[in-house]
Every structure is written in structure tokens, then in C-alpha cells.
């Protein structure tokens, strides 16, 4: 493959601020794929690779015995070429999450080439577009179009809309990227098939096993392992940092993708060299990069500030608590309760079991026989103020008791409550409340602005 023209001027330098909307408005999409034209819309090279590699693998599995040395080598080479994509193509070149010494760059470039997924420059351009336009029509492997589209469909058929612009001018300055792009065809043959075959052949005489297992079968597995980052990582798992987009965190996906499964974190903090931030989470790519840093082969490992990471986690925790909060029933709003005089309270208490506690009138008719302390303790306070007894005079009631009692409120005593009981009027379940920004009582007169000239600090 000849060396393409590498521009060092950012391709997105002069795009409009409303680029996504502008592009969708002015770009004419290709005709929809139908039964009459589907064969014209195929990406021939991608289809050939995606079909031939599994066919060769299946033939080998059915006709060539697998010896244990070849099995070990196949797994090892799968891991090496997988690392070439995850630590090289992805975290080094696409996201620039660390700097690598020249020997490590060459190793990752060749290992990544063995995964046969395009050149570093081509792969990084598509991946940067994916991050910039996640879950939009300009996302090259838009997960909203379905699992199989994001897995392999985007490679099989020509895109209906050209993927959004993404700058890779920085990669044009890399000697290793330019070298790999220039010799890419020779490298995929050598690293994809010749090297795994020669190692098995010279090592233990299994030339055929080396080709079919360490070459073809290994390539088929590493293909779909990587493809799962675009598909599976957007479909299963949790969203501990943000649920605005489809990426999710999943241990299962991490196992399948050499550690790229904590995708929700990654899309929130793409410059971080880690995919998993906890020590026990499976991320061999992170461990590989860290080990290389200890050997002097990697440096300037980027991590997002822990304070900002925890903000993301807190936001989602609060959001889920808010959802739980909204699904529960709480005490009636005091402003919506009737105001009752002391005389009226006592008069109505003769007809039903009403008890006054902390300025609120409670109808305990349905609970009086269920009271754990016995009916008599409530009965003797009907028509009376039981505040002292309830708040520790007889028994210092639990949070559950306070919450349950608040649900029995039917009125407010005229004249308010006794001084010092303000904090007791709010049940424990409502003392810590998740409120939206729009619900907060904001002071319109801000003290953060004045007409005097100041200094930004």
C-alpha cells in the first residue's frame, strides 16, 4: 500500500459550530439498502475478510489436530495482537492517553497490524469520529442502529451518511504511523499469517496448526473481540458515570475485549489510560501500559482527576436516588393540610383517634391496635399532645416510626408548634432530599458580581 498524503493541518479547523445539524441538512444520504440493490452497496474487501477468515478457520478446526503447544501459542498471540489494538491503536494513538518509547511504538504497531483491522491512521480516524459523534447519525458505528450494525454491519455495507469529520493531523507527525501506513499490506501478511505459522513450525513442527489456529482462528477471534467494543459495550452493563449515551460498564465485555469493557467510564474520560479504575476490575491493557511505564517504555500516563471522576459517580447515584425518591409516598404537604383549632381538635378526637405530636394532628385509628408498645399508650393520648412522650419521654422512636407517623397527618394545629420543635416536624425520610436545580430556592440577588473591576482567581 503506497503512502497516502498525510496532512498536518487539522481537517476540522474551519467546521461550523452547528456542524452536526449543518452536515445532516446539507449531506444527501445514499439510497436505502433494499433487496434489489444490497449487493451494490457491499464493501467488498471487508466482506471478503469477514467471510474468508472464519471459513479458513472452520476448515482448519475440522481437518487439523490441535496440539497443546499450538493452543498456548494461539492464545498468547491472540493476546499480543489484541494488546496491539487496545494499548496501541486505541489508547496510544486514538486517544493519546500516554507516550510510548519508539521500540514500544513499533511493537504495538506490528502487533496491531496482526489483528488486520486497518492502519493506525484509518482506525484512529474512525474511532475519534465515534467518540465525537456518539449515538448520532455521524457516528460510524452508531449503536442506536442495532447490535449487529455496530458489530459488523457498518463494515459490510457502505454508510448511508458519511461519518463526521475527525482530525488525525497529529498522527501525520508520527514516524511509526507513517511507516506502518506505507508497508501495511506487507505487514498484515507477515504479522497476520506468516509469523504465527513460522513460530509454530520452527518451534514444534506444527506448520499447518500454526497457520489455521494461530493465524486464521486467532484472527477471527480477535476480530470479534475488538468488534464487541463497538457493540456489546453499548448494550450490556451499567452506567455508573453517565447515562446520556449508550456506553456501559460490564465485566463480561471486559473479559471479551482484553479489558475494554468499562466503556461508560471510557466515554466519560477518554484521555485516561485506564479503562477500569478499581484494582480488582479486569483491565490487562491498563496493567500492560503500567508495566511498560515501570520499564521506561511508557511515560506521561494520563489519568483524569479523581475529584471529577467521583463527581460523575455522585451524579448518577443522586439520579438513581431521585428515581427511588419519586417512587415513594411521603408525608402530606403541611401547606395542603387544614388548620384546626385546639377546641376543634379535642371535639373531633371524641369521634376518632386523633393525637397531637409536634404541631401536627395525626389520625392513628388504623394503627392504635398495631402499636408495638400496646394500645393503652396511644389511647391515653387521644385528644392530647403526645410530643414529649413520642420524642423520648416514654420511648425514643426509630426513624421508621417517625416516617410512618408522618403518613398519618391529617391537620395542623392553629398557632403552630412549640418553640424548638422545628427540626421534629420533618420526618427523617425527608430531611435528606434529592432536589433538582430548578426546585432549589435561588437568591436572585447574586453577590458574585459587582460593577467594580476585579481579578479572576
From TrEMBL:
The chain crosses the membrane at residues 45-68, 75-94, 106-123, 183-204. InterPro entries: Acyl-CoA_deSatase_haem/ster-bd (IPR009160), Acyl-CoA_DS (IPR015876), Cyt_B5-like_heme/steroid-bd (IPR001199), Cyt_B5-like_heme/steroid_sf (IPR036400), Cyt_B5_heme-BS (IPR018506), FA_desaturase_dom (IPR005804), FADS-1_CS (IPR001522). One of its GO terms (biological process) is unsaturated fatty acid biosynthetic process. Gene3D superfamilies: Cytochrome b5-like heme/steroid binding domain. It is found in: Membrane. GO terms for cellular component: endoplasmic reticulum membrane. The keyword Membrane applies. Its EC number is 1.14.19.1. The keyword Disulfide bond does not apply. PANTHER family: ACYL-COA DESATURASE, DESATURASE 1, ISOFORM A-RELATED. Stearoyl-CoA desaturase that utilizes O(2) and electrons from reduced cytochrome b5 to introduce the first double bond into saturated fatty acyl-CoA substrates. This is Acyl-CoA desaturase. The lineage of its organism: Eukaryota, Fungi, Dikarya, Basidiomycota, Agaricomycotina.
Amino acid at each position: 500500500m503506497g503512502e497516502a498524503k498525510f496532512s498536518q493541518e487539522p481537517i476540522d479547523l474551519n467546521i461550523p459550530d452547528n456542524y452536526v445539524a449543518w452536515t445532516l441538512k446539507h449531506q444527501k444520504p445514499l439510497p436505502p439498502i433494499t433487496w434489489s440493490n444490497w449487493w451494490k452497496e457491499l464493501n467488498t474487501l471487508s466482506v471478503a475478510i469477514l467471510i474468508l477468515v472464519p471459513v479458513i478457520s472452520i476448515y482448519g478446526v475440522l481437518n487439523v489436530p490441535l496440539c497443546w503447544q499450538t493452543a498456548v501459542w494461539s492464545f498468547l498471540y491472540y493476546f499480543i495482537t489484541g494488546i496491539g489494538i487496545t494499548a496501541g491503536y486505541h489508547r496510544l494513538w486514538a486517544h493519546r492517553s500516554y507516550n510510548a518509547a519508539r521500540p514500544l511504538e513499533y511493537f504495538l504497531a506490528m502487533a496491531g497490524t496482526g489483528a488486520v483491522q486497518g492502519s493506525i491512521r484509518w482506525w484512529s480516524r474512525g474511532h475519534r469520529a465515534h467518540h465525537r459523534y456518539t449515538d448520532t447519525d455521524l457516528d460510524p458505528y452508531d449503536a442506536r442502529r442495532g447490535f449487529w450494525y455496530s458489530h459488523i454491519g457498518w463494515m459490510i455495507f457502505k454508510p448511508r451518511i458519511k461519518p463526521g469529520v475527525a482530525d488525525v493531523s497529529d498522527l501525520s507527525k508520527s514516524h511509526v504511523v507513517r511507516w506502518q501506513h506505507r508497508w501495511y499490506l506487507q505487514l498484515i501478511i507477515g504479522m497476520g499469517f506468516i509469523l504465527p505459522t513460522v513460530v509454530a513450525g520452527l518451534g514444534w513442527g506444527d506448520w499447518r496448526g500454526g497457520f489455521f489456529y494461530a493465524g486464521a482462528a486467532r484472527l477471527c477471534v480477535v476480530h470479534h473481540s475488538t468488534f464487541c467494543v463497538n457493540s456489546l459495550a453499548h448494550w450490556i452493563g451499567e452506567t455508573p458515570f453517565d447515562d446520556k449515551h449508550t456506553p456501559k460498564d460490564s465485566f463480561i465485555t471486559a473479559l471479551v475485549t482484553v479489558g475494554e469493557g468499562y466503556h461508560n467510564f471510557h466515554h466519560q474520560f477518554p484521555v485516561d489510560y485506564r479503562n477500569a479504575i478499581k484494582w480488582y476490575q479486569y483491565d490487562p491493557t491498563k496493567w500492560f501500559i503500567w508495566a511498560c511505564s515501570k520499564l521506561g517504555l511508557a511515560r506521561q500516563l494520563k489519568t483524569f482527576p479523581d475529584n471529577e471522576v467521583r463527581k460523575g459517580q455522585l451524579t448518577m447515584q443522586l439520579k438513581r436516588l431521585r428515581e427511588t425518591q419519586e417512587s415513594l409516598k411521603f408525608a402530606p404537604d403541611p401547606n395542603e393540610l387544614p388548620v384546626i383549632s385546639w377546641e376543634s381538635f379535642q371535639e373531633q378526637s371524641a369521634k376518632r383517634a386523633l393525637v397531637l405530636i409536634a404541631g401536627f394532628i395525626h389520625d392513628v385509628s388504623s394503627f392504635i391496635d398495631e402499636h408495638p408498645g400496646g394500645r393503652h399508650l396511644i389511647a391515653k393520648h387521644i385528644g392530647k399532645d403526645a410530643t414529649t412522650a413520642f420524642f423520648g419521654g416514654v420511648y425514643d422512636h426509630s426513624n421508621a416510626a417517625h416516617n410512618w407517623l408522618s403518613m398519618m397527618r391529617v391537620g395542623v394545629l392553629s398557632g403552630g408548634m412549640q418553640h424548638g420543635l422545628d427540626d421534629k416536624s420533618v420526618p427523617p425520610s425527608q430531611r435528606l432530599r434529592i432536589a433538582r436545580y430548578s426546585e432549589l430556592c435561588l437568591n436572585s440577588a447574586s453577590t458574585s458580581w459587582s460593577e467594580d473591576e476585579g481579578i479572576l482567581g
